[in-house]
Specification:
The protein is α+β, with helices and mostly antiparallel strands. The protein is built from 4 helices and 3 strands.
Length: 82
């Protein structure tokens, strides 16, 4: 029988480091909105990028920060970004 115990160690030790994730509840708290709004945005495709493994939904902190930066506005005349 083949020993696969080190496969994950090798894959995670490659260039990418372990990412930090937050839950939808933590994201809602960060944005000071309801968890339901975060779920709605995810369903509509208008929210931050997410990872779904089975029934578990998580948001990569790095991508949440990028999403927030992309949503940043200087004035109300800028309009909606596509």
């Amino acid at each position: 029988m083949r020993d696969n115990s080190n496969i994950l160690d090798v894959q995670f030790s490659q260039p990418r480091t372990l990412d930090k994730f937050i839950t939808e509840t933590q994201l809602a708290q960060r944005w000071q909105v309801s968890k339901k709004l975060v779920q709605k945005q995810r369903h509509e495709g208008t929210g931050a990028p997410y990872v779904k493994i089975g029934r578990i939904v998580r948001y990569r902190v790095e991508e949440v920060l990028g999403f927030e930066d992309a949503c940043r506005r200087i004035n109300t005349c800028e309009g909606e970004k596509s």
